[in-house]
Amino acid sequence: MTCFICLTCGVQFAPSAAEPERCPICEDGRQYVGWAGQRWTTLDALRRDHANRVEELEPGLTGIGTEPMFGIGQRALLVQTPEGNVLWDCITLLDDATVTAVRRLGGIAAIAISHPHYYSSMVEWSREFGAPIHLHEADRRWVMRPDPAVRFFSGDESALLAGMRLLRLGGHFPGATVLHWPAGAGGRGALLSGDTVQVVSDRRYVSFMYSFPNLVPLPAHVVERIARRVGGLRFDRIYGAWWDRVVDHDGAAAVRRSADRYLAALAGEGDELEL
Description:
By secondary structure, the protein is α+β, with helices and mostly antiparallel strands. The protein is 20% helix and 25% strand.
């Protein structure tokens, strides 16, 4: 029995004797089946030609990402605290070198993931480090490899350790979640957003989408709800899902001005939008 991995999204499936027929995550309108059709790999195969980059991003925060890029290409974030470490979002590749590096940083006490596109091989990480996985119950049906370590929370908020909180914002997925890290950015606070709140190429701004690869926007009332919810948090920095997608400062204001720009575009406001 093998835990096959979807080559396009990087999500690992429950053990099976043969490759699954389909990947429901990729067939969903927020993602896509690869142009070459549905293809699969395994963790052993991935270890042969990929490795993880482990890099400190700021005191108490380490990025972990796979090279060359695999799947969607996100990198995970390890938040280090005296009460234990939290792995935010996840990547598929877990190898001996990564295990050694993470153990040197204090291991993992809890795993939390923003949305199903980053579930990857979360069960492998959980079993290696003995860490529970925290997901929002609204996305329960997207768990392709069920495991007793998965703990579903309900409502709009769930406390983690060291003052960190998970906040369900919705939008990209019904259970799409961000992690608020009050001690981040030198005590000014940081928001670890995955792509629930997506840092864009102009890193003074973020965006909000139902589907990023298929360019499907969210309706105005959802964007306003997300901005209002984030507006109640104190943070200066935003860490998106990729290495270079970081709003280094003025993060809370960036969310508000980004939401205002988005809503104005939907309303057809501004000279540049006139026909």
